[in-house]
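Hallway conversation turned thread

IA: we were arguing at lunch whether anyone had actually written out tRNA (guanine(26)-N(2))-dimethyltransferase end to end. Turns out nobody had. So, for the record, here is the sequence (574 residues) and right after it the structure tokens. Reply here if something looks off.
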Amino acid sequence: MEVDEEKPQIIAENPNENVIRERNAEIVSGGNVFYNPVQEFNRDLSIAALNVYRQRLTKERSEKALKKQRRKVKEQEDEKPTPVLEDPPVYEAGTRYEDGLRILEALAATGLRSIRYAQEIAGVRQIVANDLSRQAVASINTNIRHNKVEELIEPSHSDAMTLMYLSTQPEKRFDAVDLDPYGCPNRFLDGAMQCLVDGGLLLVTATDMAVLAGNAPEACYVKYGSVPLRMKCCHEMALRILLHCIESHANRYGKYIEPLLSISADFYIRIFVRVYVGQAQCKMSMSKQSWIYQCTGCETFTLQPLGITKPNPTAGNPQQLKFGIPTGPAVNSQCEHCGHRHHLGGPIWSAPIHNPEFVQDLLTAVQETTLQSLGTQRRIVGVLSMVQEELQDVPLYYTPDKLCCVLKLEIVPMLKFRSAILHAGYRVSYSHASKNSLKTNAPPAVLWDILRSWSKRHPVNPERMIPGTPLAAILTKECTAVYEFDELHPEANPKSRKSALSRFQENPTPHWGPGTRATIMIGDNKLPKSYRNQNKKQRHKASEQQAEDTPQTVDDHDGDVEHLPKQPKLEATA
């Protein structure tokens, strides 16, 4: 389905250079409070998700009230007519409703996100825009008055954790909590779990992708309680590590999470989860986490769940489950494919990371409602379409380029590889996290067998067949089946790719990224700072070395220049 890009609205020139516009919101700032225009996709997606969440929450509350009325009528044995479900109330954006959502933006900075929430989310009761910086709160107050949303937004000058801990009473809890910190969000998760209502929505952003992607496993364990592995699927692993971290915080208070949407975009990950209360459901958490084994040679990975569930035959209720601990390990001491040892990572969230019904509602809302005019609507449609196509029951993915790199083969074209898997009777999909992803339920042995079949068409250089390497161990085995590469399978080319949707956007601007704290990441001031910080340490060392090598000179009374010998450095003595 082809989606035309929305034409931007023409806005007249503003004489005030400090005014930043995003849709209908205007931010007045002197440049000392953080703002990053690249995060517009994040804000647009959050607005769409909160609108859909409000619709679902209103429907759930109406159905709950209806069940309560029917139960009351049945207990009283009245002859009154049975209550029926009424049409849900119609809400408008920008208007305060006493039965609406109460939203907390714990780290508001300029307040742009809160202002857009007030202007674009229908059915809001109150939005608390909090920040620890006094300068940021002053900017929030200015922007609230400038946008005339004083009725909906309450500024707050407080520590985010303290504010959430002080909001644990039932009448003070929030329907939605938005955490968008600079870096790791783990310190805020404990308070967020306690200040959310039952069934509340938690929106979390993490920008420390180097830690989550495996560059610093020791730091990731300290922050998230999980060990990452250096893999091609590191972006999806980052999502699953964060989900594991959120679930572990929820379980401490007898709560559990339901992931609605988990997105890896640009330089960050964004997660939307609902948090429910339920001691019985918390017992399922162990079976949703897994260790991951990764071969050090061929990089094949294997997941082993921390727990297992199975029907309890002795119970009268067939829905009752029995919990157990799996036997292990799931792999031998040496890889069955290449004979190398394994790395052990995790635990990670191995259950589905999206709710298909929520994603469908979100996609419908973005395409058919007032959300069509979002600035990044075209990209949102492309990403959500890919999310719909993902295999929900298959954690992580491979990439053809890495698989072929292990065997020093010519890279198999993506459609040919997907066709071979589909013709073999397995399922396959892309992942929204990588344009070269290969998410499939085919076991690794089948993938290596497909590549052995491909090597017969495109032989490997015999000089590379070195004993002891993964290449030699895998390619010396015989193919166990014949695979079809030439005939394109009908499902090999997904609908989102056929329709040329905006699936993987290029970098939007030069020098883009997470940005710098308390800085307006737009305009001409950003580029000089970016250049100035490049190789700063190396340039400083070079200048110090040059100063040491340059001989000192003094002028004598006759005007001649006398070169002084270089003075040795003296060590300090006690």
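OS: looked through it. The radius of gyration is 29 Å.
IA: good, adding that to the notes. The CA atoms of residues 179 and 442 lie 37 Å apart.
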